[in-house]
Amino acid sequence: MDAIRWLESLRQQGMKLGLENTSELLSRLDDPQNKFPSIHVAGSNGKGTICSILANTFTLNNIKTGLFTSPHLCNIEERIRINGVQILESDFVKEIEKLHLICEIEPKITPTFYEATFIIAMMYFASSKVERAIIETGLGGRLDATRLVNADCCILTQISLEHTEILGDTLLEIASEKAAIARKGAPLISIWNDDKKVRKKIESSVSSSELIEWYRNKQNEDFRDEAIGLANLALSKMDYTMECKDGAKVTFWPGRMQKLQTPDGSNILLDCAHNPSGLSRAISEISMNYKGIKKIIFGCTNQTNIDAFLQPLILYVNSSRIDEIILTEPQEGRTKAISTKRLFQKLSDKLPNTCITEIPEPSEAIERGIKNLNKGTLLCIGSLYLIGNILKVLNLDNRDSMNIFRK
């Protein structure tokens, strides 16, 4: 059996929310997810940042720590890390082979691609004897496979309207799905939400009011500072004395406000922003902290409200001296990219003073973006898949480049 080919074939299953298949397969494996305690993180934006900082904080304090995140930027092995380093391909293949054998036991079970990667992570963490795991929810929370981990603390990052076709049309419905990661007797740490009904919904997910702690983000606080504050609150609730500011110092989270330099001294800034609130926050941080941006490469996947999604970008470009926006189409993603033609139709009338170029292939888009920058900055922003495409083009998709712990 070709292990990787079998795993890739599971993509045909599509997305299926539910715990039954995952629970049964984990049971056949003697429940590896219960061999270590986990911190479980859900939300719409900032999950990966807080997970990476938390994981590195534990690692820095000599606690062997597993980290499961999704989706990946360039290579599937990025989803599974111990002490900041992603699983070796050879180890990954061995775990796939073990899982395949378990799936073939009668009655046979065919997991989804996501369920399989999660189970493989649990197998690898257990066999590697990690002392703690940090687990990022994939979609929602209540019916996400990660809901099966042994969590002694749960964290909710910012919640916004996303995946409405699956999670619900209102913020209240989405909050209900995500807050369902709360465990009986375990603390739940949540970003403060201005909507009283949403707060009530989140509060109702815990068994005691003493278990919930609210984090109020400060004015103009970026995702990283917010993640540090939220993580510190979680650690204090768990009676740890370590500080996440030290973990943050050694944390490199690829594709999130990642700064690169070209041989001629020009700059590239990469950031993922996949929903309206995420793009709004990213543009706000960029406008405050990064000057000299001359060109933008932008590409995204389908949005519930494309006009609302694009609005922060339009406002930023019209208030800045941007020479050119290069529209492109993210490749190899789970979600279909919006065509450059449609993006052009949405942006051309609203950006009358900006050159807009359509280059569907990301590798060609980055080539044009770098050309004639003259020591200015190229901003690459949009879908996580787009940022992964660009990192591959720049040869920054190897294991060393993806190491998130950099002491």
Question: What would your notes on this structure say?
Answer:
By secondary structure, this protein is of the alpha/beta class. The chain has 2 domains: 3-249, 3-Layer(aba) Sandwich (UDP-N-acetylmuramoyl-L-alanine:D-glutamate ligase), CATH 3.40.1190; 258-393, Protein-Tyrosine Phosphatase, Chain A. It has helices at residues 3-9, 20-28, 47-60, 89-103, 113-127, 164-167, 171-179, 196-203, 223-237, 244-249, 276-289, 306-318, 340-347, 362-370, 384-393; strands at residues 38-42, 65-68, 80-82, 85-86, 132-136, 151-156, 188-191, 212-215, 258-261, 267-272, 293-299, 324-327, 355-358, 377-382. The strands form 2 sheets. An 8-stranded mixed sheet has the order 4-3-2-5-1-6-7-8. The chain is globular.
Question: What are the main properties of this structure?
Answer:
407 residues, alpha/beta, Protein-Tyrosine Phosphatase, Chain A, 2 domains, eight-stranded mixed sheet
Number of domains: 2
Question: Class by helix and strand content?
Answer: alpha/beta
Query: Helix segment count?
Result: 15
Please summarize the sheet with the most strands. Answer: 8 strands, mixed
Taking the alpha carbons of the first and last residues, their distance comes to 39 Å
